[in-house]
Design brief:
mainly alpha, rod-shaped, 2 helices
Length: about 160
């Protein structure tokens, strides 16, 4: 074996070794890509679950707000209708009554009626608001705490 043959064999062996190393690097690159895709899919799934929890919480909050607004709006509408009927009734008594004592009593009754009904409707709206705050604190507040606790936990698992 001559020196030239030895050098050619060494070069061929080094080239073969370089090719083997290149194949190994390419294989590791493919494995790394696959693991990155898997990791990304897990991250997306976790974010989707968190987003779903947030959307569920937002839906509960919006439903509670809608319910509160409905009760408040309904109470206001009933109050206006009640006031219209009351004004009509007391107005007719005032217009057609010939007895001054009866008119005077009717005016006092009207003032008392208006004050009482106004207090009742104000109480309905205040109670509705208080119930909404209580529900927000008990139900929605706890759901938010669970969501935050779940968000902080992934490092532990």
């Amino acid at each position: 074996m001559t020196m030239e043959t030895f050098l050619l064999a060494t070069i061929a062996l080094l080239e073969l070794l370089a090719l083997a190393m290149l194949c190994q690097v390419f294989r590791l690159l493919l494995i790394g890509r696959r693991e990155a895709r898997i990791l990304n899919s897990h991250r997306v799934a976790a974010n989707s679950a968190i987003q779903k929890s947030r959307m569920d919480l937002l839906e509960v909050r919006n439903r509670a707000r809608l319910l509160e607004d409905s009760v408040t709006g309904g109470a206001t509408a009933v109050e206006k209708l009640h006031k219209a009927i009351s004004n009509t009734t007391f107005g007719l008594i005032d217009l057609f009554s010939s007895d001054e004592d009866f008119r005077s009593s009717a005016r006092k009754a009207r003032l008392s009626h208006d004050e009482t009904s106004q207090k009742i409707y104000r109480t309905v709206r205040t109670t509705n608001r208080a119930l909404h705050i209580l529900a927000d604190t008990l139900i929605i507040g706890q759901a938010e705490k669970r969501l935050v606790a779940r968000k902080r936990r992934p490092g532990a698992s």
